[in-house]
Design brief:
The chain has one domain: Uracil-DNA Glycosylase, subunit E (3-Layer(aba) Sandwich), CATH 3.40.470.10. About 35% of the residues lie in helices and about 10% in strands. It is built from 10 helices and 7 strands. The protein has a 7-stranded mixed sheet, sandwiched between helices.
Length: about 260
């Protein structure tokens, strides 16, 4: 299924050995120029703190001046009501072609929150995030740092409905879904958030993000530390970056250890 070159264990091997950086990796691909943020997200853009700091804040995510009545309604929902609202949501055009919305899955009191981009075809069929080939890779990534889906881990997406042809979510779609993600974060109260890919990072940090430069730096969202890394689907297409993803997972594990009480 295309996973073997990346994360599958060899006989008698360990997960960490399989994920450890390969010698002399190929140069990272040149990323395309940044695309300007849509005006729909502009009111939520933060100003980064001093670049020399270890933790870079993402301020002003949703202020009282920019929240809509719908945002206020979502902010008061419990898990059952929130998932029902997500499944019936018609806030953007993605609802017109979906089979079903995909709220998220996992431990609702998890320390770890992983946020991806949006559902794919298999997720749209089954109603659960990361169940296809990228999902199997994510499970292997979790195992590499001694985690398991559903056990102290919650998995969600920046948008809850599948974009047509699995395209990147548009800024208006990210903005429409953001109150749902924000409410999930408030209910879970995770210790650490892992942003998987550029759309997830931009939704959480409310700024233009280049993964290559955001890696290895600790951001915050609402006071919660955020680590940025590559989306598993990207890693399936760019094998040379698996070593970088491994470094990011190790960084996340060290960060979590520093956050947990002794």
């Amino acid at each position: 299924m295309g996973l073997a070159p990346l994360w599958r264990l060899r006989e008698g091997g360990s997960v960490e050995a399989e994920l450890a950086p390969a010698p002399a990796p190929a140069p990272a691909p040149v990323l395309p120029p940044l695309v300007p943020v849509s005006p729909s997200l502009a009111p939520r853009l933060p100003v980064l703190g001093d670049q020399r700091n270890d933790i870079l804040p993402a301020r002003g995510v949703v202020t009282s001046a920019t929240r809509s009545d719908g945002d206020d309604a979502v902010a008061g929902l419990d898990w059952e009501a929130l998932e029902a609202r997500i499944r019936g949501c018609e806030a953007c055009g993605l609802c017109k072609r979906r089979k079903q919305a995909v709220p998220g899955v996992g431990d609702q009191q998890a320390d770890w929150l992983f946020v991806g981009e949006g559902p794919g075809a298999e997720e749209d069929e089954r109603g659960e995030p990361f169940v296809g080939q990228a999902g199997r890779l994510l499970d292997a990534m979790l195992a590499s740092i001694d985690l398991k889906r559903g056990e102290d881990v919650y998995i969600a997406n920046a948008v809850k409905c599948r974009p047509p042809n699995n395209r990147t979510p548009e800024a208006t779609e990210l903005a429409a879904c953001f109150p749902y993600l924000e409410r999930q974060i408030a209910l879970i109260q995770p210790r650490l958030i892992i942003a998987l890919g550029r759309p997830a990072a931009q939704a959480l940090l409310n700024e233009e993000v280049r993964i290559a430069t955001a890696r290895g730096r600790l951001y915050t969202h609402g006071g919660i530390p955020v680590v940025v890394t590559y989306h598993p689907a990207y890693l399936l297409r760019n094998l040379q970056d698996k070593s970088k993803a491994w470094e990011d997972l190790c960084f996340a594990r060290r960060t979590m250890k520093s956050l947990k009480p002794a």
